[in-house]
Each structure stands twice: as C-alpha cells, then as structure tokens.
Amino acid sequence: MALKKGSRREPFLKAQTTKASQREAFTVLAFLSKHQHSCCIQTIAMIAIYSSCLLRFTLTMYTLSNNAAGAQDIKTNISASHQPKQLDTCLKFAIDPQTIGLLESASVQEVLTVNSTHILPVPNKPSCILGIIARRRRVYWAIDLAMLLGLQPLDQDITLYEIVIISAQSLSLALVVPSILGVVHIQGDRLEHDVVLMPATLKPYLKGYINKDEKISYLLRPENILRSTILHS
C-alpha cells in the first residue's frame, strides 16, 4: 500500500532504515575488525616463525664454525706433536779414537786446521794446555780436549791440529781434537740426560748423550769447559 506524503509512518521507517544501516555498518566493522585481528595474528606468527628459523640457522652456523675451529686446533696440535723436536745443528768430532763429541753450533765460532808449530807452548801451565794460538788478531788458549776430559791424550806426533774455537759467556777457547766428523741434526727426543753411568771425568761437562746403534755421542756443555777448574788452577 502506498504511503501518502506526510504520513506518520515515514519518520518511523526512516528511523528503522537508519538503525538497519547502523547495524550493517557495525557488522561490516566487526567483520573487518575480526579479519584485521586475524591478519595481525597471522603476521605476528609468521614473524615469530621466521625469527625462530633465523635463530636456529645462526646457532647452527655458530656451532659449525666452532667445530671447524676446534678441528683445526686439533689438527694443528696433532701436527705439532708429530713434528720431531730438534736441537740446534751440532758439530760432530772425535774427542779421542774411541769417543765422539757434539757441540751445539751456537757455541762454535770457527773450525780450522793448523800446523802444530802455530801453537806456542806456555810453561808452568796444566798439561792439557798446549799453548796459545793467534787467530784474526785474537789469542786463544789451545786445549787438548781429550786430556781435559780425562780421556786418551792427543798423539804427540801429530803435525796438523784440528781446532774448534768455542765461545760462551764472553769466554773463548781453542779445542784441539783428532778429527772433525761433520755437521749433524739431533732429534730432541733422542737425547738422553741421565749421565749417572757415564765416566766420572766426563760428567761435569755433559749436557746429555745420543745412543745410536750402540755408538754413544756425548753432547758437551761449552760453558763448563770454559770455566773448568783445571784450566784456572
């Protein structure tokens, strides 16, 4: 039925329409609010998952890095433990026909061969002091090393002397020996330090010894030779 203009029902219908529009608006707003909240939750959840994955990845890479560093350290330690320990290069020589001596190269200044006449005898000295020898504007006491160590002295008929000039703690000596046998490298773990059973006359001058194929080479302490009480008596 058509309504006449100015009918009493018109304001009522307008009010109803307004309320319906408001309800629809609230419904739409509620829907949007509901879905907006859901989207926010999803977004936050995705961010949390991403952050967790990123944290796990970072921890994994850190662990792998530490493991690699640890493995490298172990490898380095193993390599270092397998490397043979060496003394300084040593001069090898005969002390007497039956005894081999060693001196670390740091204490050896020079090795030379001279005629026995180049050594000038000095009276009233211990028998192991053969005399003095001049070398490069310096004068050295020439010592029969074997006699100093209580071993077989040099052959008196030798016309050529093999001489090792040693120096330590501002002192120097010319050691006269039967022969020079060359230069050797000694592994540190092969050096024996227990000299209890060594000859008593050698003990004060020994740093250790090498026993190779039942042949003993004695590593000498040059500073003990230089400060021997026999030479300074």
Give a concise summary.
Helix content is 36%, strand content 30%.
What does this entry look like structurally?
With 233 residues, this protein is of the alpha+beta class. Helices cover 36% and strands 30% of the residues. It has helices at residues 9-82, 145-148, 222-226, and strands spanning 90-96, 99-104, 108-115, 129-135, 138-144, 160-168, 171-177, 179-184, 206-212, 215-220. Strand 4 and strand 5 form a beta hairpin. The longest helix is centred in the first third of the chain and has 74 residues, at 9-82. It is elongated, with a radius of gyration of 48 Å.
Question: Could you outline the blueprint of secondary structure elements for this entry?
Answer:
Blueprint lengths: L8 H74 L7 E7 L2 E6 L3 E8 L13 E7 L2 E7 H4 L11 E9 L2 E7 L1 E6 L21 E7 L2 E6 L1 H5 L7
Parallel strand pairs: 2-10, 5-7
Antiparallel strand pairs: 1-2, 1-8, 3-6, 4-5, 6-7, 9-10
The residue-averaged pLDDT reads 77
Radius of gyration equals 48 Å
Structural classification: alpha+beta
Shape: elongated
If strands are numbered along the chain, what order do they take across the biggest sheet? 8-1-2-10-9
Give the terminus-to-terminus CA distance: 151 Å
Alpha plus pi helix count: 3
Low-confidence spans: pLDDT under 50, at least 5 residues? 1-6, 78-82
Estimate the strand proportion. 25-35%
Sheet bearing the most strands, described?
A: 5 strands, mixed
Helix content: 25-40%
Along the chain, the helix and strand elements come as HEEEEEHEEEEEH
Strand segment tally: 10
